[in-house]
Amino acid sequence: MTTDASHDFTRPTTGTFSPANAGTDEPPLVQLLTPEGERVHHPDYDIDLTPEEVKNLYRDLVLVRRVDLEAVSLQRQGELGLWASLLGQEAAQVGSGRALTDADMAFPTYREHGVAWCRDVDPVKLLGMFRGVNHGGWNPAEHNFHLYTIVIGTQTLHAVGYAMGMQRDGAVGEDGSATIVYFGDGATSQGDVNEAFTWASVFNAPVVFFCQNNQWAISEPLEKQTRIPLYRRASGFGFPGIRVDGNDVFACLAVTRQALKAAREGQGPTLIEAFTYRMGAHTTSDDPTRYRVATELEAWKLKDPIERVKAYLFKNRLADQEFFDAVDKEADVLGRDVRKRCLELPDPDPLAMFEHVYSEPHALTAEERDQFAAYLAGFDDASGGETR
Ligand SMILES: Cc1ncc(C[n+]2csc(CCOP(=O)(O)OP(=O)(O)O)c2C)c(N)n1
Ligand SMILES: [Mg+2]
């Protein structure tokens, strides 16, 4: 191998280097609630929450986790084709989701069940999509929550386009709307995401890039996506980046609220890196024991997003056992209800798959639909479904 003095080949490529702690002058991530449930203060990102608001956040976290658990079970029982669990990422999703106003628009990946909850999307609609009985499940315009996007990173471009549209319609400003887009650590390696950063930056688009760095992109660790902490990518594009404790619902709420406000006020985009961990498998088709060690999981368990809010409420006598029992009971009722309604979802009309391919009638799609209808009609004859 040739060496070139102008390049630094001395940096380690494996082992000691970690984008989680790169550089010695790395500021600590924004945190307002420690894993032990101690409230800490931050000079730039503080937040005042009433006991009622904290209890509501706790309730959101517990209910969202319960829906997720129920979905994993349903998949295991053969009732869903697939499920992407949010386990461990509840605070990042509920904190950012609750920072949104009704007028704001959100673009999710396939894992944002907690944000969907905050946008009042019925969880059964999410399950329907993973059961393969609907085409996405909800009307994005009704919830200001776009459909789930499986193609990694592409929704960042949709979001920037949407935000630029709002900007041109004059729909931003203090009481107007901002756009938030969710993506993962792996997505930051996609061209789409980097293009979205460029466009958002140069057009000063009112958009918040919310990256849930859950440390893994299926079996690829963070080290294979970046040599610097992800939030620092933003400075190269010309807008601020901030790293927040993604397991701290208070901090996620505070930081996202501020970034959305800045977007509305014409200050352009912000990249938020929510530093968190995917506690479950990538999806129900994945087995993470094949590529990651159990000690990593154990370390993150101690940073659980729900336990720290519970500890905070307990320590400060803001809630008693009765409250926690009532939330658990509500979660049980919700879990049972979601399961029941999922199993009752009707199978779709087979021809429905040809609807909504294009917004207007399309000759080729119509031809394919007619061919398929004729094929299906072959099953109706007296031969019991035999076609020749
Ligand atoms: C363009 C594209 N390439 C590859 C895939 C396959 N794929 C699905 S999820 C995933 C990893 C995404 O990781 P990350 O962005 O960190 O999100 P996470 O799943 O961890 O939430 C990949 C590569 C895809 N869906 N789309
Ligand atoms: Mg990831």
Automatic annotation (TrEMBL):
Requisite cofactors: thiamine diphosphate
MF GO annotations: magnesium ion binding; oxidoreductase activity, acting on the aldehyde or oxo group of donors, disulfide as acceptor
Dehydrogenase E1 component domain ranges (all copies): 62-332
Keyword Oxidoreductase on entry: yes
Entry's Gene Ontology BP terms: branched-chain amino acid catabolic process
Gene3D superfamilies xref list: 3.40.50.970
InterPro entries according to UniProt: Alpha-ketoacid_DH_E1_comp, DH_E1, PdhA/BkdA, THDP-binding
Ranges annotated as biased composition (Basic and acidic residues): 1-10
Keyword annotations: Oxidoreductase, Pyruvate, Thiamine pyrophosphate
NCBIfam families for this protein: PDH_E1_alph_x
Protein known as: Pyruvate dehydrogenase (Acetyl-transferring) E1 component subunit alpha
